[in-house]
Amino acid sequence: MTIRLNVNIDHVATVRQARRAPEPSVIAEDLSLLRQSVSTYLNMEMAATEEMLRIALESRPDAVTLVAEKPDEITTEGGLDVKANIAIVRAAVSKLRQGDILASLFVDPDPVQIEVAHDVGAQQVELCTAAYAEATLGARAIHGEGAAHAAQELRRLRDAAELATQYGLHVAAGHGLTYRNVGAVAGITEITEFNIGHNIVARAIFVGMEKAVYEMRRAIKAGSFRPGLGNIPD
Ligand code: PXP
Residues with Cβ within 6 A of ligand 1? Predict the structure, then answer.
């Protein structure tokens, strides 16, 4: 089975815009430039607003991941509450699918959200790995309670991935994943896509983007290696 690694580049934009200066000021053009230059797979993360839907349908990314966006957030802060926004999400998913764009929902690894994601017609869920990632930070997950907590969060991801697969959904995962903690998540066979940004972009400052991405692919590959399969491309 092939696992896809998507690199979230919002962190590049964060650096670019850090000075809040008028230049560079090409945000509105970013998407069309990306669509012209990305020949592999373009996944656009966005809130389910009318404006963003119009932009997505015009720009035609391969996939759209609907996320919960807060006005002052630096990055996405948790899964979308699909249950609480069911009518809006259902309508957005329907428009995306009519536009031949894969509809993915960024959700916490919660059985209720997965059930509702299936109900509104999404084709994929991206499981939010933030709680797992938080549990693995620093030396937290090495001993006793910390290790048990990280194992519990990993189990939640595994159960959610299994449930999503039973519903016929594709399963992606992301948020807070690092070179160190991605391996255990890559061991969950149902997960076929990773969306990772911050750790790769931060490492790219030292080793360059190509090497930073390559190293993350290696970390995923090492974690997902299953005897007899081993056919994840380098
Ligand atoms: N998935 C989603 C939906 C996100 O919003 C983000 C943040 O860009 C990521 C994955 C990647 O998270 P991180 O930058 O922590 O790797």
Answer: 8, 10-11, 45, 65, 67, 75-76, 106, 126, 174-177, 195-199
Q: What's the gap in Å between 174 CA and the centre of ligand 1?
A: 6
How confident is the model at residue 19, as a pLDDT? 77
Q: How much helix, strand and coil, in percent to the nearest 5, is found in the chain?
A: 45, 15, 40
At 86-133, the pLDDT tens digits run 999 999 999 999 999 999 999 999 999 999 999 999 999 999 999 999
Residue 131 identity: A
Delimit the domains of the chain by residue range.
4-224
CA–centroid distance, residue 227 to ligand 1 (Å)? 30
- CATH (residue range 4-224): 3.20.20.70
Contacts of 151 (CB under 8 A, 6+ apart): none
Whether pTM > 0.85 for this model: the answer is yes
Ligand 1 center from residue 177 Cα (angstroms) = 8
